């Protein structure tokens, strides 16, 4: 066979059982079966999920740091960098607000909490107080101050995404101001990024084991029967989140030249990983790599993805408004229009800074109810049993929203054409074909 024929011949297909997302899907199904049939054994598998999440968190900070530093320091047009930042914030605020409003409208229309007739005095007040105590750190001033780490390496020690982003921005600016003398450092960052992605490829092979342990623990701890009357809220939330993805994000994707369905197929491994571990942080390194392979510039990926984990939590926003009003309905607490508008405004602030880890949305809900005392904080006890199931939907919706935001900002910046985007969604290039230096050149592509 000639070299030309070899070059264009299709790569051999993997056996189905070696495909990662199929392995994760099988592991999730096994976890559900184990947790349901052998609940005690399912609970004992919790360390498998926890260990995998810790492994992923191990590399999140260095990958974000290298991606942001390389992307920003390679960009000579600082006006473009500022423009990307402004567009990102504007997009986040608009779409996040739409998510909050949709959640509020749907829960008022379906009214899943009607008929519960729960007396808050019969619930354990300690549960609500414990979550409120954890939520105290979410105040606006403390949140802003917390972006600045205590030490340079403190950001890496804590793993706070915004702190890492802050340190990376300063480092990138310093390297850029060094001019030609900063190029050796930039090449070192590029090689470091390849190393950390190599580590990520090794770790992610353990995803099926982590997904099995996390799902077995969830079902073993709470059981499928624990859903009970709360099933109405779960169904309402899942349907609302699904419609938000297909209709709202789908319309945004269509307007920017790509199909939301093909995009979901492109990130299927990350979606299944998020479902299995109930945390969108486990899929963060993979999302960064896939957005770069899609053709988005390093600077755009490095800014939009990590920032979105604090400022663009569409699933969490839908959940907060629906859950808060649901608790009011379940406890027969009257909420007029003014109360609900206040709830919406408070949720817009308290949702900022909720990370992608499991349970963060529940803590954020507690922070919102603490500020809006018309809904009894004790009623949070109603949601404890199903929060893990709700967390999966929150995390998946957040993940999808942040990926769409990255592609949209890249399209606005003319980093990638509609044709290239569609081609890469259908036939993504191999990892080796898109090193950071090549991806950075994508910023020069002009749209037709």
The structural domain count equals 1
CATH overall fold name: Proton glutamate symport protein
**Low-pLDDT residue intervals, each spanning 5 or more residues:** 1-10, 431-448
User: Care to count the β-strands?
Assistant: 0
The average pLDDT score comes to 77
Q: What is the CA–CA distance across the termini?
A: 38 Å
Radius of gyration: 22 Å
Task: Report the principal-axis shape.
Answer: globular
Number of helices: 22
What is the structural class? mainly alpha
- Classify the beta-strand content into a percent band: under 5%
CATH class: Mainly Alpha
CATH architecture descriptor text: Orthogonal Bundle
Order of helices and strands: HHHHHHHHHHHHHHHHHHHHHH
Largest sheet: none
Q: What percent of residues adopt helix (DSSP H or I)?
A: over 70%
CATH homologous superfamily, by name?
Sodium:dicarboxylate symporter
Write structural notes for this entry.
- The chain is mainly alpha-helical.
- It has one domain (16-444): Proton glutamate symport protein.
- Helix content is 71%, strand content 0%.
- The chain is globular.
- The protein starts with a helix and ends in a 7-residue tail after the last helix.
- The model is unreliable at 1-10 and 431-448 (pLDDT under 50).
Key terms:
71% helix, disordered N terminus, mainly alpha, globular
């Amino acid at each position: 066979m000639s070299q030309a024929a070899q070059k264009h011949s299709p790569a051999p297909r993997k056996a189905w059982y070696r495909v990662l997302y199929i392995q994760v899907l099988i592991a999730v199904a096994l976890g559900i079966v184990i947790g349901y049939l052998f609940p005690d054994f399912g609970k004992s598998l919790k360390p498998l999920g926890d260990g995998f999440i810790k492994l992923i968190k191990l590399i999140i900070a260095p990958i974000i740091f290298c991606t942001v530093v390389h992307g920003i320091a390679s960009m000579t047009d600082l006006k473009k960098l500022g423009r990307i930042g402004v567009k990102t914030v504007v997009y986040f605020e608009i779409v996040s607000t739409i998510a909050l409003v949709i959640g509020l409208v749907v829960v008022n229309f379906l009214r899943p909490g009607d008929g519960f007739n729960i007396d808050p005095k019969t619930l354990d007040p300690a549960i609500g107080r414990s979550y409120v105590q954890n939520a105290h750190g979410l105040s606006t001033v403390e949140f802003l101050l917390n972006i600045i780490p205590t030490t340079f390496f403190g950001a890496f020690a804590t793993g706070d995404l915004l702190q890492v982003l802050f340190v990376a921005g300063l480092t990138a600016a310093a390297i850029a101001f060094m001019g030609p003398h900063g190029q050796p450092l930039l090449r070192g960052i590029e090689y470091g990024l390849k190393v950390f992605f190599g580590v990520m490829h090794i770790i992610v092979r353990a995803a099926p084991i982590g997904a099995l342990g996390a799902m077995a623990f969830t079902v073993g701890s709470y059981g499928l029967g624990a859903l009970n009357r709360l099933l109405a809220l779960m169904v309402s939330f899942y349907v609302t989140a699904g419609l938000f993805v297909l209709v709202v994000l789908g319309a945004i994707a269509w307007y920017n030249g790509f199909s939301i369905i093909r995009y979901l197929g492109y990130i299927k491994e990350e979606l299944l990983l998020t479902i299995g571990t109930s945390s969108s942080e486990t899929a963060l390194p993979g999302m960064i790599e896939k957005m770069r392979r899609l053709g988005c510039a390093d600077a755009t990926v490095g800014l939009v993805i990590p920032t979105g984990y604090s400022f663009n939590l569409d699933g969490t926003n839908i959940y907060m408004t629906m859950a808060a009003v649901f608790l009011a309905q379940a406890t027969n607490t009257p909420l007029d229009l003014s109360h609900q508008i206040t709830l919406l405004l408070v949720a817009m602030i308290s949702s900022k800074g909720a990370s992608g880890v499991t349970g963060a949305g529940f803590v954020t809900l507690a922070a919102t109810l603490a500020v809006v005392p018309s809904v009894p904080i004790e009623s949070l006890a109603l949601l404890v049993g199903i929060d893990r199931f709700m967390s999966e939907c929150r995390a998946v919706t957040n993940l999808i929203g942040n990926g769409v935001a990255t592609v949209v900002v890249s399209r606005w910046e003319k980093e990638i054409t509609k044709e290239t985007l569609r081609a890469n969604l259908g036939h993504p290039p191999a990892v080796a074909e898109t090193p950071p230096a090549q991806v950075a050149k994508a910023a020069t592509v002009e749209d037709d």
